[in-house]
Amino acid sequence: MSDIIEIERKFLVDPAQWQEQGRPLVIRQGFLATTEKLVCRVRQKGETFYLSVKADIDGFVRHDFEYEIPSRDGQIMLEQHCERAPVEKTRWHVPYAGNTWEVDVFEGANAGLIVAEIELKSADQCFEKPPWVGDEVTDDPRYLNNRLYVTPYSQW
């Protein structure tokens, strides 16, 4: 299970300055149910599957519940109970100035999009941005994974 409270900020990445760092993790995720304030998804990280629920508390602060599930269950949910093809991305964990950034390089219908996220301990925590991090898109709902699932980057 993950931390219950998630405080996350999201930024675009400058592809001209970004270089792959560390070990990649391939992620596929589909959405079972979404509302304005709640998302239920099935996610495959490498060979492991998870069921997660995210519930909006206040802007970039959310409840985040994630549980490992049997691979067979995850495959069935992803392949039979999601309305669309999954969001596909490769994730890189990048340490920088005392924090860890998650950089997602999207594939498939979202190819060309690279987003960096940082999880914070408090909403007002200060942090230093790496040189490859660009404009903040935390408040732009188009960049939420559940929105990229419905309206991929290639359709903007």
Brief write-up:
With 156 residues, the chain is mainly beta.
Description:
The chain has 156 residues and is mostly beta strands. The chain has helices at residues 71-80, 145-150, and strands at residues 5-13, 25-34, 38-45, 48-58, 61-69, 87-96, 99-106, 114-119, 133-136. It has a single domain (5-155), classed as Hypothetical Protein Pfu-838710-001. Strands 1-5-4-3-2-6-7-8 form an eight-stranded antiparallel beta barrel. A hairpin with a 2-residue loop joins β4 and β5 (61-69). It is globular and about 40 Å long. The protein starts with a strand and ends in a 6-residue tail after the last helix. The mean pLDDT is 94.
Topology:
Layout: E1 5-13, E2 25-34, E3 38-45, E4 48-58, E5 61-69, H1 71-80, E6 87-96, E7 99-106, E8 114-119, E9 133-136, H2 145-150
Antiparallel strand pairs: 1-5, 1-8, 1-9, 2-3, 2-6, 3-4, 4-5, 6-7, 7-8
